[in-house]
Amino acid sequence: MRAVSQTGNNTKPNNKGSYRRRRLVMIVLACFMSWAGVTLWNQIGKLTEKGDKMSFLQQLREETQQVNEVTKREVVRLNDPEYVEQKIRKELHYVKQGETLFYVPKEPKK
After folding, report:
1. What pLDDT does residue 56 have?
2. Quick one: average pLDDT of 97-102?
3. What are the DSSP calls for the chain, one per residue?
4. Which residues cross the membrane (predicted)?
5. What predicted TM-score, i.e. pTM, was given to this entire model?
6. CB 34, CB 41: distance < 8 Å
7. CA-CA distances (angstroms) from residue 20 to 17, 25, 26, 46?
8. Alpha-carbon distance 21 to 23, whole Å?
């Protein structure tokens, strides 16, 4: 029987066809990896853009909800005749019969 050497020194391809196949596979693999990298890069950019837009819209939503709550409270308070009278007197400077309105101008800010 013959002794078979398993040292692994024979790393070169046996023929040119095997070398060409490896080179072709490596080129195809490099092209695929390049395409995947570019696609991933574009998707990361789009995700960042969408995330920024979503955070802006969430902030806008929170502000709108706060305004909505304030408006709802105002509507409830407007059903109270005492509050309506107080608001008319303050904003429109109405007075009851026999009352005198004293107007004190505000001092200008420096």
Report:
1. 97
2. 82
3. -PPPP-S----S-SSHHHHHHHHHHHHHHHHHHHHHHHHHHHHHHHHHHHHHHHHHHHHHHHHHHHHHHHHHHHHHHHT-HHHHHHHHHHHH----TT------PPPPP-
4. 24-44
5. 0.49
6. no
7. 5, 9, 10, 39
8. 5
